[in-house]
Amino acid sequence: MSRSAGGSALLIVAVAAAVAAAGDKPPRGLVKPLDPASNPSTPAKVALGEKLFTEKRLSADGTISCATCHVASLAF
Predict the structure, then answer these.
(1) 52, 10 in Cβ contact below 8 A?
(2) Which of 26, 37, 56, 70 has a 20 to 30 A CA-CA distance from 62?
(3) pLDDT given at position 43
């Protein structure tokens, strides 16, 4: 998997986690992500997405996560 493909996959997982955290209705400005039959969402995948979304060790200097800037209460 290329670096950009991996980043895209992480983004999809993070968006799915954000939507899952908000319930069935996505936060304003987001559409509910596709849930293809070939790769259905599972509670384990959602949990992984939530963990990755808040993981600071994935940043260049280990001090910032996606959730640092993409705040749920501000529609991400």
Answers:
(1) yes
(2) 26
(3) 92
